Amino acid sequence: MLFGMTLWWSAEQAEAVCTEVKIEIVQEATFERIAFDARMAITNNDQGVSLTDVRVDVSITDAEGNPAGDLFYVRVSDLKNISDVQGTGVVAINTTAEVHWLIIPSPGAGGEDPFGKVYDVGATLTYKEGTQTKLIPIRPDQITVMPQPELTLDYFMPSDVVGDDPYTSQVEPAEPFSLGLRVKNSGYGDAWNFKIQSAQPKIIDNKDGLLVDFEILSAQVNDQPTGTTLLVGFGDVLAQETATARWEMIATLSGKFKDLKVEFEHASELGGALTSLIQSVNGHYLVHEVKVGLTGSDNRLDFLSDDTADADDIPEMIFDSQGRDYVVNHIPDSDVTVAGYPSGGNPTVSLTLNLPPSGWVYAKVDDPGQGLVPLSGAIRGDGVYIDSHNVWISQVKKKGATGYNYYLNILDYREASTNKTYTFQYQDIGNDTTAPVTKVVFGTPSYSTQAKTYVTPATQIVFTADDDLSGVAFMEYKVDAGGWQPAYPLDIEQLGDHQVDYRSKDRAGNLESARTLSVFVDDSVPVFGSLTASPPEFSPGAPGNVGAMRSSVISATVTDDVPDLDITLEIARGQGAFNTLPVIRTLTGKAASGASAMMEWDGKDAKGVIVSPGIYSVRMRADDHLGHTAEVTGAVTVSDFNRVAALDPNLSGEQEFPEIYGNHVVWQDNRNGDWDVYHHDLSTAATQPLVSGAGNQEKPAIYGSEVVWQDNRNGDYDIYRKSLAGAETVVYAGPGDQINPSISDTWIVWQGNQSGYWNIYAYRLSDGETRQLTSDIRDQVKPKVSGETVVWEDYRHGLGEIYVHDLSTSTQTRITNNNYQQMAPAILNGSILWTDQRDGSRDIHYKDLAGGQDLRLNYEPSDQDQAAFNGTSTSVVFYTDYSAGLMDPNVALLSVTSGIGYFVSLNNARQEEPAAYDQRVVWQDNRDGVWQIYSALVQLPTDEVQYEVVVGFNNMMVTDNVTAVSPDAFSLLSAWEGKFGLTSLKQYDPPTGVYRVADYDMGTHAASGDNFTLESGKALLMTAGTGGIFVLGQRTMSNCSPLTLEQGFNNVGTLCLPSGYSAYDFINSVGKSRVISIQQLDKDTGLWRGASVRDGVIMGDNFVITPGEGIMVQMLGKVYGWTP
Questions:
Q1: How far is CA 654 from each of CA 686, 690, 700, 932, rounded to the nearest angstrom?
Q2: Domain assignment of residue 617, yes or no
Q3: Domain limits at 669?
Q4: Which residues, listed in sequence order, are joined to residue 901 by a DSSP beta bridge?
Q5: What pTM was estimated for this model as a whole?
Q6: Does residue 663 sit in the same domain as residue 748?
Q7: What is the predicted pLDDT for the residue at 14?
C-alpha cells in the first residue's frame, strides 16, 4: 500500500506577506497476509499430437457448494511450457505444462470463526486433441481461509507548528510536533508484521521560494521509541485491537497546516480494492496528545482532534489508543471564569466551568501567564489531579505581527456531580538558573560517526533548543573562527573539516555554554582500486564433501573521506555493458575506507538457485551515505563440477532419449531425415547407426548387448530388437501401436493399444512367449522391467498410480494409493522410483519392494522428474531438476541413503531424460540449438556427513564420532583446543530447562564449569576460534535412530534428512498441534532463523535443515520416535 499526505502549509514572511508551501509525505505500508498458490500440471503423453485450445476455468465454492468466486481475486501468476489458458494455449507432445494461479481472499472471506472457513477450489480443463474437444472437471482441493484483519488508519497532524518567527532579529528554536497514527483492526484476524516506511517530507510546491524546511526526527510505536527515524514496525496488530505510532517532526518557520489530504492506493496486481485489508485512511487535525485514563484504559497517548478545522482549533473528538472514539463538549469562554495570574508569591490560577455538561469537556482561555510561565499541573476541586497531558499551554503565531498568542487548555471527563473548579499550578520562574539545551538536526544527506558528521554543501543544518522554565529567547552559532550570528538554518559550502559552535539563551538571561560539533563537508565520490575474483573460476554445484571451490570472493580496495561505506555487489549473466545485462543477484555489505571491500558469491541467483556455467559480469558499487557513488566492474566464471561434453556432435539433426548399459549408449537420431537408432561405444568413442531405413525407429532401450525400440516402418508402431553385433528381429507386430519398450535380461515389455486402450505386454526372451499383463479400459503406460518385475503408470483409478507385476508369479500389486498423480516409474533389482505429486510439486519417491517404506527423496519446493537408477546400484538416483524453472531443467544426482547430491550439469538450456550406468550419465541437451546427447563421468556421493565449524558460534549435533573423540565436555574442549580452538560448550538439558555450560581458558589450558556427558542426538552450541571440517559419521541405520522430542525446548540433530528438508516439512511431520517453534542458527550472521505455528498456520522462515546441524525445537508435548 502507498500512502500520500498532501498538506498546504502557510507562513508569513517578514514583510507580512502570507505564502503557501505544499508538502508531501509518502509512506508505504506492508504486512503479511493470506494468499494461496493453485498449481496445475498438464502432461501430454501423446506420441503424435499436441493439445490445443487449452482453457482452464477456476471455480471456488463455499462449504455448502455455493459459488464464492466473488470473494476472491484470482489471476494467473506463472505459465511454463504454455502461453495461455484462456482458450489458445498449446501443450506440445511429451511436454508438461504448468500453470500457477494467485488466489487472494477478500476481507470477510475468512469469517469470524477463529478456525476459518473452508472453500473448494476446482477447475474445468478444456482442450482439443486433434479435432476432438475434451472437457475434464478437475477434482477440487480444499483451502481454509482464516479470519482476516480489516484496518482503519487515522492520521493526526497539528494545525499550528512553532519555529522561527520571521518578525524578530533573533532565531527562535523549532518546537517538535507529532504526526500521529492510529491503526485499528476491526477484523477477526491478525495483521501480521505490520510496518510503515515513511519518506522524509518533500516540498512539492513553493512558488514564492520560502526559506523553510521540514524534517522527521524520530518515531515511536505504542509510545515506545523504535530506534529508527522513518520505519515503524507494529509487529502483529491483533484482531479487534489497536496500535498507535507517531513521527516527531520540526518545521524551521512557524506556520499553519491546512487542507490536509490523506490518500492510499492498493497494488492492482494484488487485487486492488477487492482484496484490500485497509478499509479506509482518514486525516484529522491534532489539537493535542492526551490520555483518556478511564477505567479499563491503557496508559498510551490518545489523540484529541479538530475534525471541522475551525479557526479556533476547537476539538470535537477523542480517538483513543484502544480504538474507541469519544465526543468532546466545548465550554465557551462565556461559561469559564478565570481568577488570578501566576506570580512569584502565588503561582496559582483558579478556573471555574459554569454549567458544564457530563462527559468529556474542553475549555480554552487566554493564558494568564501570557506564555512566560511554564505550567506544572492542575488539581480539580475534589482533589483529583488532572493528567499532565490533559492540561497544557498552546501558542499560535500572531498574524502580521511579532510574537504569539498563548492559551490555557484543559480536557476532563466529568459526571453531573463532579466539582467544577480547577486550580492550575505554574512554575516559579524566579528561580530559573538553568540555561537552555541546544540540539542540531542535520537534513539530508548527512552521516554521523562518533567523531564527526559528514555533509554535502547542500545539506541544511537546523538548530533547536529546549528550556526548563522561562523559555528560549534566542539561538546563535558560529563556524570556525567566524563571529556569532542568529541560528538560521545553515549550509556550509567550503569543503573539508569545520568546527561549528552553537548555544542558546533563555528569557531569564541564562546563556548556555557553547557546544561544539565537528563537521566535514564532502563533495567527492569514492575511489576504487581494481576488482579481483578469487578464485576467478568456481563450481557452485560441486558436492560438499569434495575439495572443489564452491564460491568466489569478489574484492576491491575503496577509499573516501567518509570512513565507512555501503557496498553493493551486483552479478549479471553474460558480458558487455553492465546496464544492458540481466542482474541475477545483489549482495550488500559495508567496508572501511582504505580497506578491501569483500563479498562472497555462492553461485546462486536471487531465488537461491545455482546458476548455469558461463562468464558472469560483476559490478561493485560504493555509497558514502551522502549520495556519492562509484563503481568498478569485473568478471567471474562459473563452471560445471563435472567435465561435460557431447558424445557425437552433429547439428544436422536432433538426438533424443538416450539409454546406456556398460560402455554402450543408444538414442534416437534424425540427422538423416527420419528417426533412426544410433549407437555410441564409450570404449572406442565410435558412433554409428544401429538401425536405419524406412519409417521411424524411436525410444530405444538397452540391456547387455540387446537393444529394443518402437518402429513404424509398417504404418503403425511395432516392437523390434537387435543385438549390437547381430540382425534385427520383430518382437511384436500386432494391430495398433506398440510403444515405450523396456528390456531386462529375461523380458521385453511395452504398452500397446490394440484393444483401444493402452495396456501392458511382455515378451520372454528365452522362448518368445508374449503375455498381456493388463486389460483395463483405462490406460496403463510407460512400463519398465528389471529381472522378472515390471512397473508402470496406471490410470484405472483416475489419476496415475504406480503398479508392479511379478512375471514369475503373475501377481500385480498397487504401490501407490492417493488422489494425486504418480508417474514415470523406474526399476532396478527390486527397488522402484517414480515421480509423485501428492505434496504439490513433482517429487522423486523411492521404495524397496521387499517391504521397504515409500520414501520421498526430495523436499525442494521445485519439481523433480524423470528419475533413473545408475544401472548398477539402487543407492544412487539421477533425475531432472526444475529448480531453475520449467524451461531450464538440469540433470542432478542424489544418494538415496545420505540425501547428498549435486547438479551434474547446470547449463541454462534444457538438460533432460537422464540415463546412467555406474559413474557415467547421459542425457539429451539443447544447449547447441538442437537436441544432442551429452555425457559426464561423475563422482558418486558418499554417505559421509560433514559439519563445517566456523569461527564464532556453531550448533552441531553430537554423534558417535564426537563421543569417540571425548565422552564429556571437558575432554572435548581439551581435545579440540588445537583443532577448532573451542572456548565454550553448551548442551541444553530439557528436564531442568537450562543450558549446561563448560568453558575453556586458552591461556591456562584448563576447563571450568559443568563437565556434562555428551549425548548422541543432542546438539552442542560451540564457540570456536578456528574453522574446519569434522566428519560426523556415515548415514547408516545406527546413526539414524528416531528422535525423542521432549515437552518444552530441545536442541537436537539428525544425520538422516532428505534433500531440501525444511522447517515447514519438519513441523508438518511432527504435527502443527505439537510444535510451537523451530529455530536454526545462521552461522554466517550468528543470528537465529525461526518458524512457528500460530492459530494452526505455519509462519516465518522456511529454512532448509542440514543433516548434522542442531535445531532448537519448542514442543507443546512429548513426541517419541520421530523420523523425517
A1: 18, 16, 15, 6
A2: yes
A3: 644-937
A4: 894
A5: 0.69
A6: yes
A7: 47
